[in-house]
Design goal:
alpha/beta; two-stranded antiparallel sheet; Rossmann fold; 5-stranded parallel sheet
Length: 231
């Protein structure tokens, strides 16, 4: 019984530390977002990735205003009415992280991000774990050298893969991204785990999807709420 209580205490402490870490990660930025003109500065949020952050729903239809970058923007401008926030979307439909890394300096860092979001895992299946890790680490390291806050996203679902299984190729990419977040001490939005929990609680995954591997507005809202927990 004593071991049981120690185990519960450990779980509680880990959960508490995780919440504290998340709430503190953007603490300086949150102070900046509350400043009023003329003391405030423009905050640049850059979303880098593939078709999901690009806003593709049912290809070739793009619903930018219902995608998670814009849902985040909408909520933040309501939460911080004095802030000047730039939403910069550098995502390209169909791209993988290797291609994203090749244009990272010229098309992402040139925007001087205050916060950078990276979301490539769905398409990284075609380049494999090793190549994806090299590309992600390249982008992470370059961003950290510029003191940019980085938040990584695990993949949203692909309905051709059973999300209730625990060792699929998407699980492997998700685990790698979690490891990178821990290694570099940067932010993580665990989209894949969020959708998996919905599926395992008997919520139909298709109710969150617009097509095979693109979330609908409800799915994007799930991701955006996880991002907003940092703010």
């Amino acid at each position: 019984m004593k071991l049981f209580y120690i185990s519960l205490l450990s779980i509680f402490l880990l959960s508490f530390q995780s919440k504290q870490s998340k709430s503190d990660y953007l603490s300086e930025l949150k102070i900046e977002l509350q400043k009023k003109w003329p003391e405030n500065k423009t905050i640049n949020l850059v979303f880098h990735g593939h078709s999901v952050p690009s806003g593709y729903f049912k290809t070739p239809i793009v619903n930018s205003l219902e995608s998670y970058p814009f849902l985040v923007y909408k909520e933040l401008t309501a939460e911080y009415p004095f802030a000047v926030i730039n939403l910069i979307n550098t995502a390209i439909g169909g791209e993988d992280s290797k291609s994203g890394a090749s244009r990272f300096e010229s098309e992402v860092l040139n925007h001087n991000p205050d916060v950078l979001f990276i979301d490539y895992a769905l398409n990284d299946r075609r380049i494999g774990l090793d190549s994806a890790k090299i590309a992600w680490e390249s982008m992470i390291q370059k961003a950290l050298e510029m003191d940019i806050k980085v938040i990584l996203l695990t993949p949203s679902p692909d309905q051709e893969i059973d999300i209730q299984e625990d060792d699929t190729i998407l699980d492997q990419h998700a685990n790698q991204i979690r490891g990178l977040s821990e290694k570099y001490g940067i932010g993580l939005v665990d989209s894949y785990e969020l959708f998996k929990k919905k599926a395992k609680s008997n919520r139909k995954l298709r109710s969150f999807m617009s097509q095979g591997n693109h979330p609908n507005e409800k799915g994007h809202a799930l991701i955006s709420q996880a991002i907003l927990s940092y703010f």
